[in-house]
Amino acid sequence: MDLIGQLLHLFVSGDFWQLALRNAALLSLPALGGVICERSGVVNIAMEGMMLTGAFFAVVAAQAWHNAFLAVLVAAIAGGLMALIHAVVSIRFHADQIISGIAINIGAIGLTTFLNAKISNFQGLPQVDLSARLPQVNVPLLSNIPFFGEVFFQQNIMVYVAIAALVLGNIMLFRTRLGLRVRAVGEHPQAADTAGVNVYRLRYGAVIVSGLLSGLSGAFLSIGIAYIFNDNMTGGRGYIALAAMIFGKWTPWGAFGACVIFGLGDALGASSGALSVPLYFLQMAPYILVLIVLAGLVGRSTPPAADGVPYTPEAE
Amino acid sequence: MTEQGQTAGADQLAIDMRAITKVWPGVVANDHVNFSVRKGEIHALVGENGAGKTTLMNILYGLIKPTSGEIAINGKIAQIHSPRDAIGLGIGMVHQHFMLIPVMTVGENITLGYEPVTRGDFYDKASARQKIEELTHRYGLTLDPDARTGDLPVGLQQRVEIVKTLYRGADILILDEPTAVLRPQETDELFGVLRGLVQGGKTIIFITHKLREVMAISDRITVMRRGHVVGHLVTSETNEQEIARMMVGRDVLLRVEKTEAKTGSVALKVDHLVAESDRGVPALRDVSFEVRQGEILGVAGVEGNGQSELVEVLAGTRSATSGRVLLGDRDITNLGARSIRGAGVSHIPEDRRGAGLVLNYSVADNLVLGRQRSERFTWRGIVLRLRAILNWAKRLIQAFDIRTPSPEAAARTLSGGNQQKIIIAREMSSEPRVLLAAQPTRGVDIGAIEFIHRRIVEQRDAGAAVLLVSAELDEIRSLADRIAVMYEGQIVSIEPSGTSEERLGLLMTGGGREERAAG
Amino acid sequence: MTAPTAPPQQREDAVRPDIAGWVRRAAKAMAVPIGSVIFAFLVGGVIFAISGSDPVLAYQAMACGGFGLFCFGGETPALQVANTIFFLTPLIAAGLSVAFAFRAGLFNIGVQGQLIVGAILATIVGIRLGNWPGIVLIPLVLLAGIIGGAVWAGIAGVLKAMTGAHEVVTTIMLNYVAYNLLKFLVVNGPMQAPNSSAISLPVSQNAQLPTFIPANSTFFGQPGGVYHVDWGLLIALAGAVLFFFIMRRTALGYEIRAVGQSQRAARYAGVSVRRTIIVTMLISGAFAGLTGALMISGGSLHYLYSDLANDSTGFDGIAVALLGLNSAIGVVLASILFGALHAGGSVMQSDAHISGRIVQILQAVILFSLAANFLRTLKLRLPGPGRKVAEPSGEEAVQDEFQAEVSSAATDIDGKA
User: Fold this and answer.
1) ipTM here
2) N or C, which terminus of chain C has less Cβ within 10 Å?
């Protein structure tokens, strides 16, 4: 009973939901990237590595130029470059996409830690100073609404970016010609090819976009939330984004819904001091939730038909 | 105009492919092929599996680049590097395996790659619908642009493919084995559509190996064999025999020498069997029959009428929802493949590369596939007896003349015919009581076909009950002692051995029920 | 009736064991992994050069740390070799775990989590039954680890077999559950040792695997306790032999490989694909759990620590399995390489002042090259002198050429399944 009281206290606090939404937004960028990438038929489990790379280079750029927006740009490009490696290896060389993804994740840890040690001479990069941090934005008027104002309209700028990306991503995938082609390529690349659609170009594009989005998310993490870079700081968030994508049945808003659930879990974890439940059990919860869903207790989840199969033409 | 050559004027030729050659490592798919089609005609491109017809058309459609040769469309030399080029030249192709995306709508599939857009890049559904309706009205087809393609029956899906080509402005349509997946009424409907298209000024190339259809619909014929063109014919001046002779290079009468069947007791009894297909649709609706020792019961029918599912249920790789299968006195219904095999039922699967073999396993390993736990090959079902397996393999390789450099060679290095021989050897050498043979000679060269037929008769003479399922009527008529005809999941009749092709064809397409022979 | 068979001479060749052929095929199969490694070292050299470090110095330090060669910082070569052995022992077991699952076509990415659960159970047994004699206790500790890992992987196996849930996702999720479980137990939790932070009590002396070099001796100028070479090495190698035996000498292994090659063919052969998936994951998890037990009973620490969650053994196992082409002998060889890289990395860090994490970058490059080359390893079916390989017929040759069969992960050093 005590626990329920504590939970209720949390659930009516604007602080708590603000945190939850922020966490959700952080996860939804790579999740959206994953949706787009896999919809085009390329499996991507490398969000973790791309995010970490983005986080690192954001801090480096922030330190160098003291400009948050330039740093975000750099982070996106860094993520995009990592994604490009995955794209080339998977699409051009028909590599196994899961192994490639794992390689990216391992390589990202190695690269960022190595460079971190190199640049800072094993001391660790210093904290990001104020001029280079991603600012919070309070929407005029709307931010004064009690409770909702705090939750929705007093957020870091990247949260708004994430929501905008979701809206745009959804429109692109389901209402535009480009999205139609992307989905066709993911379902039946041969049909798309014989219809005259450039399978390779679309897949490259989709993979790189997922890298850009993951890189953005990394920047959000390092210069918008933590204001520092620690080795391996993404701590598995990329994998949670992957789970969110599957949860959300490979749709942008579905993935976002899953991100909200996970963001809630994270927020609960951060507030575990206020709850008499061990922190680690709370942190376990999202993962167990995914397992339950995957066990089919909440319905089956099917990916795009040609997901993960390298396209080889001339199969007749 | 003489018709055994090509004397039409160049400007009357919609398509003129000259000296087309395509070489792949180890194989010449097309060897200096000359192929031409006149405007406004229906031209049949005929040949067996592997003759090179599909390769030739894939070259025409830009999916494959020829090693050498040139192509002229409507009199002008053309460079076709991709389907987009071909489409630009007015060529459209309907593939044997549909290039349709099941989860998308008819409209989306038709317009893919040439989608109408509004306000930037937004897909213009209304405009697409309008254009499609225009086309379907003009050529007498009907399609719902908003239907989910995967939900449509096969005949309508094919129509989507046809409208797809029309939408892109095709004047020349290539149809690759279009009737392979159709029921007879759908085939008739298709022919009606084709005639309508020709009246509307289109030119049609029709790839097939079904001679009856060639005679029914085409104006002229080009026959290919092993990558070469072996003849040009005018349909009205030729017949099926002549075409067949050209296709195979000799008279095609696969008659195996066989004596009268000496039948014994009932070995396999099937009782009111009901089963579903992979899609959850009923595939077997109350099937009953018997097979005796020492006889071959052929199962004839157009593919897709339940034959595959029947064999799978009997072999234990598919569950029956009701009904019984009895092996002698023993009820083996739904016992599972291992037990059924152990009880003496051998199975030559119709999908040799997918199911009958593990291509990366050695020949020897493949020769014990399915019996890997039997005491003969495994100690207490745990540890493999490698020497026993190797000796077994060597015996079979010799007895069945399987051409392989060694028993340890991987099965994927063998030719199709020899791969099939592995399966035949394996299934026949266990001295089965019942032999289920599904499409045993599909994709196999002539020499191996005769070999396999002889072995099947041998099994019969040794007392096995053989169930032979085949889409080749000739094979059934030559081997079977009795012929069961399947149509829409049921056995519509069991006919005696000498039954005419016409009667069988009639039964296979659902007719002739009033005159059904008794059991 | 039948056409004449091949002349007797050729058939005799098939009877004699073909050592030369095996060596040739093995060499061809190893070309790709070896090429990947060389390529990775070249890339590493470039990275060193670009970031202002001396490649030669770096690799020299690595060689020193890995094999005791070219040491210049005053290290004891024997100690360096011992360190390599220390690292490679759990790697063998982890690599076997991943490789076993790969043979069935399953991606076991959850080795780290399974390893942790195994370590937890091993520690509990090793502490609770700490008074029991070593001869009984040690096998029990190992068994506890094996069971823990097997169960953890079994969850993913059951999910996959029953619901089709992709094992990549489920094993990753289970990893994170295991990490949090570990932290719960050891960070201010029920298993935290008193007056310590984030570590557990060590298992008793009896539960620890005996080392080869006694602690109170001197070996090459260093006190014996510094060398951490223990019986775990032999156990790991025994594991490799067991792997080989199961895979290639039992009907179960035949069926597992069949499932990995073609589920349809396996079903046709009467194999229950579901049962095989579950059994495979259980055995794979058993190897992973053994790894965890070896790290507790052997190694240097003998207790649980929260940072085990960040340990890289599980993921290194993936690289080891792939580099070893999923075969027992390959895994052992690859483990030697990666063990040497690990040991070399720390010397590189202390002597050449370069972050040891470069090893991860090398690992990633190796993985990329392997992944990209997979399909090509399938084509290593070149005929030897005097042997003709039957030509596949027309359309099937086309299909072979242009249809990508993703069965490469389940073929071994012979290119066969």
Assistant:
1) 0.81
2) N
